[in-house]
Design brief:
alpha+beta, Multidrug efflux transporter AcrB TolC docking domain, DN and DC subdomains, Multidrug efflux transporter AcrB transmembrane fold, two-stranded antiparallel sheet, 13 strands
Length: 419
């Protein structure tokens, strides 16, 4: 693993431009698959898309992975794809005849040390040079030209009766290397992990790949589960949906208790619906995708902000209608008196969020303004959602809330006449 620390972001190109160039430069190295990955932020680790392939019949997993890899190649949009199938390699096993070894007086631990000297070497000690940060192992082993399988076959092991050839009591067996075996719920599993090309969303590719896999004749005993960001987004989406419903229920209980009116409580909560359209519009204008985490948190946070404007209008209306001759006059006076406070509250909030919307980093000490700093990009989606939703909801609230109040007054008057 080679880790690269880039220079200050203002003195270089974007990492999204540097990484593809590095990937193109190392693609011509033969025989070595090289993957280039950017630094990960947040709790999610690993590649964006991870596919878990499992089966009760382990021999069916590798062909299924091969089919899925072909489908991914047909789709495109994936890069640095890897899977956990064992690589085609040979593993040598030394089977010791302990009865014969005992006849020759061979110490099995000594035999292990002799074999190690031909492979990795026997570690004697550790040494830390003055110019190094970590310790260096000092190992004793045969010269490079003698570290071969043939040399292992001709190895002579020292015994009390003299040197004895290792082949007298050791049999060499070659077999396919198994690698690491992973199981989930008692079933053998293998993974496919892949990155995405710049500008593509994991959810779009996952849905398309799921549709292609459903149309493919895979073995029925093979089970496919999508992990990575797809699973994380579903978990986060379920949590945020439950949190949003709990917040709405709590606000409804409080509003009904305070205003003693279901109709006015629903009017206040209607601002949340208007703000949702504004969130999507704000993200569309700024070119930001709707993320489950940041976008979902923005929706929940905005729900508690946008209802304030309606609360101010309706509370003022309930107070004025006691001192006016008609509901229309109370509504008009409410709109006239509360338009400036509502606009000031919303405008100051949106203006305070604009630096984060435009990814501005303001250094008052050094009197420097930076645009697009890596630390500011994390909050752009959240601030765009709140600013867009609040702006859209405020404008509609000033027009729709008075209209809904008038509709409610007219309905009550009509019902009174019918009664």
């Amino acid at each position: 693993m080679i880790q690269l620390e880039l220079i200050d972001w203002e003195a270089r190109r974007k990492a999204s431009e540097i990484i593809p160039e590095i990937r193109d430069q190392v693609a011509s190295i033969p025989g070595i698959p090289i993957q280039v990955r950017a630094q990960e932020n947040g709790p999610t680790q690993g590649k964006p898309i991870e596919i878990e392939v499992s089966s009760r019949q382990p021999q069916m997993i590798a062909p299924a992975i091969e089919q899925i890899r072909r489908l991914m190649d047909q789709m495109g949009g994936f890069e640095d794809t890897e899977d956990t199938r064992p690589l085609p390699s040979i593993e040598w096993q030394l089977k010791i005849d302990r009865h014969k070894a005992a006849q020759y007086g061979v110490d099995v631990s000594l035999l292990g040390s002799m074999v190690t000297m031909i492979t990795n070497g026997v570690r004697l000690t550790e040494y830390r040079p003055d110019d190094a940060e970590e310790e260096v192992e000092i190992r004793l082993r045969f010269p490079k030209k003698y570290r071969t399988i043939e040399q292992l076959r001709t190895l002579n092991v020292p015994t009390p009766h003299g040197a004895v050839p290792i082949t007298n009591f050791v049999t060499f067996i070659n077999d396919h290397k198994t690698g690491r075996i992973k199981r989930t719920d008692g079933k053998r599993v293998m993974m496919i992990k892949t990155d995405l090309e710049e500008g593509l969303l994991a959810d779009d590719l996952v849905q398309q790949l799921k549709a292609m896999i459903a149309d493919t004749d895979l073995e029925k005993t093979v089970t496919i589960n999508f992990k990575g960001q797809d699973a994380d987004q579903k978990e986060a989406g379920n949590f945020l949906a439950n949190a949003f419903m709990l917040a709405l229920f709590t606000m409804t209980v409080i509003l009904v208790t305070q205003f003693n009116s279901f109709y006015q409580s629903i009017m206040i909560l209607s601002a949340i619906v208007f703000s949702t359209a504004g969130i999507l519009l704000g993200l569309l204008i700024t070119g930001q995708p709707f993320g489950i985490v940041m976008g979902g948190i923005g929706v929940i946070a905005l729900a508690g902000i946008v209802v304030n404007n309606n609360i101010v209008l309706i509370d003022t209306y309930n107070d004025l209608k006691k001192h006016t001759e008609s509901h229309k006059e109370a509504i008009m006076r409410t709109a006239a008196q509360r338009m400036r406070p509502v606009l000031l509250t919303s405008v100051t909030t949106v203006l305070g969020l604009l630096p984060m919307v435009f990814a501005l980093t303001i250094d008052f000490v050094n009197q420097h303004i930076a645009v697009g700093a890596p630390s500011s990009q994390w909050w752009t989606q959240l601030s765009s959602a709140i600013a867009g939703g609040l702006t859209f909801a405020t404008i509609l609230t000033l027009f729709i809330t008075p209209s809904l109040l008038m509709m409610g007054a007219n309905f009550n008057a009509w019902r009174a006449r019918k009664t």
